[in-house]
Structures are given as C-alpha cells and as structure tokens.
Design goal:
3-stranded antiparallel sheet, 4 helices
Length: 154
C-alpha cells in the first residue's frame, strides 16, 4: 500500500478531492466579502440572524460565517497533504455539516441561537455538503495509489 505524504508529490484521488473542497470553501469565504456577489452587503453583520447579506442572493452570510468558510477551506487544503488527513477532513467535516443541517432545522431563523446565521437555503446546502463529503471520504479512501497530473510537455 502506497500513500502520498509529500505536499509536492503525487496525490491520491482522495487528497485531490479534499484539496478541491478546501479551495471551494476558501472561494466561498472570499466571495462572501465581495459586494455584488453578496447582495445586501451593507447589512453584513458580524454574527447573528440579523445579518441581511446574501451570498449569490440566496445564502445568508455574516462576517463570522465567511471567516468559518475561510478557516474550513484552509484546513481542507492543509489536510490534503496526506491521505489519512484528507479522509478525516472529508469524513468529519461531512459529519459537522450534517450536525449544522440538524441545528439549522431545529433552531428558529430569527432567534439568538441562530448566531452563524443560517437560512433555509443554507440548511439544505449543509445537508448536501455533509452527504457529499462523507460519500467522497468513503468512496475514495480505498484507493491509496498516488496520481500524478499529466505534465504539459507530454
């Protein structure tokens, strides 16, 4: 069994998927701070259900929400360095997103407990993210063969 443990060497499909998921979370965190991509940007609050900012006009965000996306994305990219860490990121990150989905369903949208903040679109996205990340962890973790990207000169 061969695993890739170097950051510059070949990566397994699981590591590549983790790196991609991390990059998407980083992008989402950045986009949450860009007026126009985030509508109602002037009502972007630090935290809480009172933040009226909507990423892509759909997903309720706050400064705290965006920071969490940035940190989660950075963790994904860093944990993609090894096969085992990549699996842990996707598996446990997926579980965290399923817990967030349940939390969002149980907590009222206009209550102080909705501190992230979350709306219905966020809740259903969290369900899809949780299931998708767990599926990637399970389906890709068996193949530990590193894959090299084709070189441009080939």
């Amino acid at each position: 069994m061969v695993t890739a443990n170097r950051t510059t060497g070949a990566k397994t499909k699981l590591q590549q998927a983790t790196q991609a998921v991390g990059a998407v979370f980083l992008l989402v965190g950045i986009l949450g701070f860009i007026p126009g991509i985030t509508s109602n940007y002037d009502s972007l609050g630090f935290a809480g259900h009172g933040s009226g900012a909507l990423l892509l006009g759909i997903f309720q965000v706050s400064v705290l929400h965006n920071i969490v996306h940035l940190l989660f994305g950075a963790a994904g990219i860093l944990m993609a360095r090894t096969h085992g860490q990549a699996k842990n990121f996707l598996l446990y990150g997926g579980i965290i997103y399923l817990v967030l989905w349940l939390y969002g369903l149980l907590v009222g949208h206009d209550t102080p407990a909705n501190f992230v903040p979350l709306n219905s679109a966020d809740n259903w996205l969290h369900l899809l993210l949780g299931l998708g990340m767990i599926a990637l962890a399970v389906l890709l973790s068996r193949d530990t063969t590193p894959r090299r990207r084709p070189s441009a000169s080939a």
